[in-house]
Design a protein that fits this description.
alpha+beta; about 70 residues
């Protein structure tokens, strides 16, 4: 099933215990299931204000520190 984006892990007894789903391949097929379970897969888990702050800092000019000359 790996080619479909779904892989199943089995425990030492051979019983399926975990399933891994590649959402980039299976999202459209699973959205009805997600809605039924009350899971919104399109909603970010992060606070939008926090994301804006992080993005702003990542665009800021960076200063390179030469750690060889820091104590001279």
């Amino acid at each position: 099933m790996e080619q479909t984006g779904i892989s199943i892990e089995r425990n030492s007894q051979g019983v399926a215990s975990y399933i891994h789903i590649d959402l980039s391949k299976c999202r459209k097929n699973l959205q009805p299931f997600f809605k039924e379970m009350g899971i919104e897969d399109e909603v970010s888990l992060y606070n939008p204000e926090f994301v804006k702050k992080i993005e702003k800092r990542s665009k800021a000019e960076r200063v390179k520190i030469d750690y060889h000359n820091i104590w001279k």
